[in-house]
Task: inverse folding
């Protein structure tokens, strides 16, 4: 059932004909924030209430695209003359490069990657251009935690436009078990005509997406993530597909890439992804992870337990256990106290 | 199934459909799938929405889904609470379970305010006569809802107490006739002229004080697809005992104030600008001050006459 939903969501098949399936499909898509993508993949099919729902989603995602384009422009303006050329990551890059993965995508913040040694300068320049530390992470503990251990600065929010920017200096936390070679990926990045910013090469875009989804995220919006992987993989030229596994090995991201290929092959029936996975030979995707993901996607009674398992896994992947224990302790007590005092939540 | 009026269904049937999440409310431009286990929600819904159209099935395509229920399992049974869940993360304050009607109405407001982009939404009450509309802009303590309810008694139909819903392609307003929310002293005022049957039981001690709801009338609901042309925009200022007064407002100022209260103007973008400007081309804008409801109705009626509507 859910596999049929995934395929309909990207336009591989028509929308469900049966009215009950269609209504379930739309509620699933709304819940997983992919209605805009569904609306982009099915432009001519709608009438009646279906048309209303898809049109509504299109207007929303058109706004996100405008916002992203504008913010990318403001970022390159803020860094003008400094010689810093940040790499736009994720949704920002997909939209700026006009990729299928960016069509109809809901975007709430913008992610950029800069070289570690230019990080401090980038932060200063963005501050001068109006971005400030966001109040939700303004506390001392959060600030130190981000700066000492994480792969990004604490999120910055623009003072008047309220848009959020994450400035990365690596792809995973300093403490993560997996340490991908972002330096190699940055070196292979390409300039985006539209913005003066850069984006990863098509191959590295897929690899980074795999890293982000399978080695960092807690799979909060599984459908959105897998659709992104499907489009990015589908956009690879035959030559890139052949070199993908070697590149994954080179940048130290074999495991997440294997999981990503499994998802694309399993949920979208992609023969190419299946072949790429087979070519990895002994590399197998963890049976446990696959099982848990299937439970999450299917939904139902066990889904919350599976989601908890993924949440625990995401933290396990991020830092050594002793450190994790200390962090969770601080989060529960120190931040709890702060949140109560300032009502800023957390 | 074809849509039926809530009042023609047994309360038990509505309750079962609500519990199963199979109740779809079709009101104005929006369909909303409602889910709730609360008997208080059911009772309130059967009473205040009795003239509204619903379908009872789960294969309906809807604009929004809204669950109104306990924030967690514990709070379903121990000192029970209720909170609206519009299907996306929103930090709504859980309320004591007896305030179920407030949770439902807050949830209905949230679903439309934060998820509608097909129309430009403004925070205002709207009434109309002969399909010419008066918009009553929201302003804390201004008396928007009291004035809206009073205009209903003066022969105007209710489009909405909460949202002026503007089409993107032409400057006309779409009705969404849900109950009018009344607070504190205005409950007595409205009950006095609309009658006891028109007003719900009171909820005491809510975060907004005492609250009650005035039902949209059958005629309001029957005209729910009939658009109206905005002719008059009112910014009301109620001060107890004050002499009535009228001040004209520059259209540009009025537009800025109205846009500031829109939850989706920026998101809709250029079409919102075009349609709003077209609306202001033929809109008279006034601030009115008054000390009692009769004065406010008279002021609005006079200004409405002047527009030639």
Result:
């Amino acid at each position: 059932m859910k596999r049929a939903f995934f395929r309909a969501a990207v336009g591989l098949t028509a929308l469900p004909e049966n009215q009950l399936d269609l209504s379930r499909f739309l509620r699933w898509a709304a819940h997983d924030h992919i209605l805009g993508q569904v609306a982009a993949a099915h432009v001519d099919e709608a009438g009646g209430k279906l048309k209303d729902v898809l049109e509504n989603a299109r207007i929303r995602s058109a706004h996100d695209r405008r916002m992203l384009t504008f913010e990318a422009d403001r970022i390159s303006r803020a860094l003008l003359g400094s010689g810093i050329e940040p790499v736009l990551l994720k949704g920002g890059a997909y939209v700026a490069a006009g990729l299928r993965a960016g069509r109809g995508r809901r975007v709430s913040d913008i992610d950029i990657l800069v070289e570690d040694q230019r990080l401090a300068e980038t932060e200063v320049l963005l501050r001068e251009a109006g971005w400030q530390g966001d109040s939700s992470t303004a506390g001392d503990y959060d600030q130190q935690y981000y700066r000492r251990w994480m792969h990004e600065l604490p999120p910055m929010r623009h003072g008047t436009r309220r848009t959020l920017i994450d400035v990365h200096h690596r792809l995973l936390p300093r403490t993560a078990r997996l340490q991908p070679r972002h330096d190699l990926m940055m070196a292979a990045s390409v300039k985006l005509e539209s913005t003066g910013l850069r984006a990863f090469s098509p191959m590295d875009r897929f690899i980074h997406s795999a890293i982000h989804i399978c080695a960092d995220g807690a799979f909060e919006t599984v459908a959105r993530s897998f659709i992104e992987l499907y489009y990015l993989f589908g956009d690879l030229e035959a030559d890139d597909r052949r070199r993908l596994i070697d590149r994954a090995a080179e940048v130290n991201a074999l495991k997440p890439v294997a999981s990503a290929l499994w998802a694309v092959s399993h949920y979208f029936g992609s023969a190419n992804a299946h072949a790429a996975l087979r070519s990895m030979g002994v590399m197998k995707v963890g049976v446990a992870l696959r099982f848990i993901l299937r439970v999450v996607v299917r939904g139902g009674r066990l889904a919350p337990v599976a989601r908890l398992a993924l949440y625990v896994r995401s933290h396990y992947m991020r830092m050594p256990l002793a450190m994790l224990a200390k962090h969770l302790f601080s989060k529960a007590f120190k931040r709890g106290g702060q949140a109560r005092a300032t009502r800023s939540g957390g | 199934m074809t849509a039926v009026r809530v009042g023609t269904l047994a309360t038990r049937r509505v309750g079962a459909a609500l519990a199963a999440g199979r109740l779809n409310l079709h009101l104005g431009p929006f369909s909303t799938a409602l889910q709730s286990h609360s008997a208080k929600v059911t009772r309130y819904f059967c009473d205040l929405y009795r003239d509204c159209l619903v379908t009872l099935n789960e294969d309906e395509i809807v604009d929004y889904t809204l669950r109104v229920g306990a924030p967690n399992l514990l709070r379903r049974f121990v000192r029970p609470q209720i909170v609206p869940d519009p299907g996306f993360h929103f930090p709504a304050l859980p309320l004591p379970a007896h305030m179920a009607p407030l949770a439902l109405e807050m949830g209905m407001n949230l679903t439309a305010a934060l998820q509608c982009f097909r129309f430009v939404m403004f925070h205002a009450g709207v009434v109309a006569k002969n399909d010419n509309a008066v918009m009553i802009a929201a302003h804390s303590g201004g008396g928007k809802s009291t004035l809206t309810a009073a205009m209903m008694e003066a022969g105007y139909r209710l489009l909405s107490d909460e949202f002026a819903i503007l089409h993107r392609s032409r400057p006309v307003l779409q009705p969404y006739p849900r109950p009018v929310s009344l607070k504190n002293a205005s409950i007595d005022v409205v009950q006095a002229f609309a009658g006891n049957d028109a007003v719900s039981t009171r909820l005491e001690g809510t975060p907004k004080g005492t609250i009650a709801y005035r039902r949209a009338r059958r005629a309001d609901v029957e005209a729910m697809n009939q658009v109206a042309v905005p002719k008059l925009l009112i910014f009301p200022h109620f001060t107890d005992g004050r002499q009535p007064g009228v001040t004209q407002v520059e259209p540009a100022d009025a537009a800025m104030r109205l846009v500031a209260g829109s939850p989706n103007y920026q998101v809709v973008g250029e079409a919102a600008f075009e349609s709003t400007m077209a609306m202001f081309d033929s809109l008279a804008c006034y601030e009115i001050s008054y000390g009692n409801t009769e004065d406010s109705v008279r002021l609005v009626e006079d200004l409405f006459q002047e527009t030639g509507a």
Notes: The first strand of chain A starts at residue 87 and ends at 89. Chain A touches chain B at residues 18-20, 22-23, 26-27, 30-31, 48-50, 52-53, 55-56, 59-60, 62-63, 66, 345 (CB under 8 Å).
